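Ex. 9. Protein: beta-lactamase.
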Amino acid sequence: MTLFPLRWFCAGALLITLSTACTRSTPAATVERNIPVKAQSQGPDEYVLADDVSVRKLAPGVWLHITVVTLEPFGRVSTNGLIIEDGETSLLVDTGWDARQGALLLDWARDTLRRPVRAAVVTHFHEDRLGGVPALAPHGIPVHGLEETARIATSLGLPGPTETFAKTSTVDSLELFFPGAGHAKDNIVVWHRDSGVLFGGCFVKDGASTNLGNVADADVAAWPASLSRTRQRFPEARVVVPGHGQPGGPELLGHTEALLR
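Predicted structure tokens for beta-lactamase:
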């Protein structure tokens, strides 16, 4: 696998309960090792596409995809994204670590879910969000993201969004919202009203996290106000998905605020 420099990604924790860390050059103490993904089908609500790619149902019409990369000296590091059913097609939120993982997600949506990906969203410029973008281009799939994400990606020579917005946008059943800087200056959240699922990405920490991870690209001073805007805009959120670790409820926003304090 060809990886971007270590500085350009968010590194996560175990798929189950251990703390997470988003990093550009994270100390080893803040990144936990992953339990290996089982290389077998887990039934109709969970699919293992490869040793480093799995998908499981999170809510009606909403699937959590988990992609993993091996990084020395950390071991296996996982990250979360979504595939959301939208009529006869689907929407991809974040794209995996690289083009191979991105292609596996596209294939699964087309062949197993029977809803090919129509559009994608990337939630900020780090590798675990937009690493799979090159797999989308041959299919003409538009990639939505913040104008700032496109600017940063271009400046770093990374693949970036092809459809951009400044503050808010909608992509079919999804609302995209820039709450302000936090984990990164371009982090957005994604709201799916039909399911009550809010994808917070690396802007939100999972419940087992005991620290903010790496803050090299963060605006720690702005982060609390950005979280407050998110809570005010999406009071109906029932499920909150962090960039790494286990999904939870709205309490993850409060947990992230507590870590900032």
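Check your answer against this statement. The first strand starts at residue 46 and ends at 50.
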